[in-house]
Amino acid sequence: MARFIYTLAVFALLPWAILHLLWRAGKQPEYLRHWGERFGYFDAANVQDPSSPTIWLHAVSVGETRAAQPLVAALRERYPGHRILFTHMTPTGRATSEALFGDGVERIYLPYDTPWAMRRFLRHYKPRFGLIMETELWPNLIAACRHENVPLRLVNARLSQRSARRYAMFPALTREALHGLAAIGAQSADDATRLEALGAQNITVTGNIKFDITVPDEQIALGRKFRIGYGGRLVWLAASTREGEEALILDAWEKLGDGDTALLVIVPRHPQRFNEVARLATDRGFVVQRRSDDAAVASSTQVVIGDSMGEMFAYYASADIAFIGGSLLDFGSQNLIEAAACGTPVLIGPSTRNFAEVAREAVACDAALSIGNADDLVVQLNALLGNADRRRQMGEAGRVFAEHHRGATARTLELIGHLEYR
Fold this sequence. Notes:
alpha/beta; Rossmann fold
């Protein structure tokens, strides 16, 4: 009954979903593409090849897609001859998949969670098994997987206290969905405890796959190129910033008045905001360049806008200090692991619920410093910019921290087990 009521609600919201796509397309035209996939209609030419069985991974957006890199590499090694299908919900997730994996994987949008669309999806692609990255519980999708005998596992699962409270508002629906999963690999013991409290079973703490991401050599080389282009100045990076954060950062940086000696590089989380953030900096009187200019940074430039996709490791590798976006305002923070793996000292704000345990451990081992607001950010930043030994100490601590937590991919493969062919 709970899922029946949920399905009625999904059906009632479909007109709103269409309007939402149109509204988002105003800033990101990619939302106008591939609409058929969102309702369970796929390219007729893209049919299942019996000689190439399918492994399906769902990664809703950018963070989940990037986190899947080591898992994809491990799956290719274990299951040669299988094709890998990614499903996404956002154009940025889809673009990230294309940037990271190219033609080595297929990618579509996961349909909206109606029973008929999910059945069409599963019968069209016939996956041997499915893996949902992090925490995306779609009740009709899970029920359809059980009906079609497609084992579905939740991997790299995380569940914040806030998300747990939301799921707890619908206990019967949440419990049914969790019981429909073949297994769950949780990032931490805290995540496992919150999932168990909601009714989840068969949970293993596998760790965070993001620690297993290897910094690509070509990204390190690109970071060196960036560094040369910066002209020898100290560089601080505001990485994966979210709405409202850039204005606070720019205002605080302007107040400090250090824009002539150190270079600020801002990489917004969402590409549709590149132009907006460039205007914010220009309107405040900063001299601005953009990564897309593909030119050496002029000595007069104070702010660089990192308006590119798939180059975050290069930005980290080129920076002396990195502030992790999404943590200054109440967004729950973006991932700090990549910065630590690059040996870049980290500053992180008060909102860290999406990476709570990672943030606590990074601060505890001196790979990161916690800041309270934008003014505190630039004060701490200025102190670090003037202390090369402290930066080196934090950078090395970050590398050790990242290396210490590796191994989640291997544990996730154990959770997946061996394929059982139907």
